[in-house]
Specification:
single chain, about 200 residues, alpha/beta, Rossmann fold, 6-stranded parallel β-sheet, 6 strands
Length: about 200
């Protein structure tokens, strides 16, 4: 069903369906905290040990990119993918310079919903959708990556996800794949579920 979601901007569920389809089985995935990455916990499939890195219970927003850099240094032969929302990526995006300078060729997917998704989800469920301080103005992350000398890709249709990811993995450089996603699509906060 998720593979049939055709809405634009893309739903994170569809992005994960496409990623699941094309990721090599030995890929190390560093999944960030936050609303957009949260959809990946039960949508990506891991069959090999030490291929899933996450700050799941600690809420460490910004974790995925530096974790991916470390994973690539530890296993240079493995493909390594960091998955972020836009807010989480911006916490360490400057380390693209480090990745380029040292040839740490990780791929970063930035699911860009132009907001702090977790905060927006809480405000939707607890404050009736009265949003305060949760919108973010962003650059184009594919262009941002190229400013640092990394490869940059922009995806706005589900059929482009696989091609962009394959191109990024084979680029021979650090790479960023920006995917605009629906700013109103986020999981229900756990505290809201417990209150029902």
């Amino acid at each position: 069903m998720e593979a049939r979601l055709e809405a634009k901007p893309l739903k994170p569920q569809r992005v994960y369906a496409e990623l699941r389809r094309v990721l090599p089985p030995d890929t190390i995935v560093a999944l960030d905290a936050g609303a957009a990455p949260a959809y990946g916990y039960d949508r990506l499939h891991f069959t090999r040990p030490r291929t899933f890195l996450t700050p799941l219970d600690l809420g460490g927003l910004g974790f995925a990119f530096p974790a991916a850099l470390g994973a690539k240094l530890g296993r240079p032969e493995a493909p390594v993918l960091a998955i972020h929302g836009d807010g989480g990526f911006l916490m360490n995006a400057q380390e693209l310079e480090t990745a380029v300078r040292h040839g740490i060729n990780v791929v970063t997917v930035v699911m860009n919903n132009n907001c702090w998704g977790s905060e927006k989800a809480y405000q939707k469920h607890f404050y009736g959708g009265r949003y305060i301080g949760c919108d973010i103005g962003n650059p184009r992350y594919d262009a941002f990556a190229r400013l640092f000398g990394a490869a940059g890709y922009y995806v706005d249709h589900p059929d482009q996800v696989g091609d962009a990811l394959r191109a990024a993995l084979s680029s021979g450089s650090p790479a960023v794949v920006e995917i605009p996603i629906d700013p109103e699509e986020f999981p229900t906060p756990a505290t809201a579920v417990r209150r029902r």
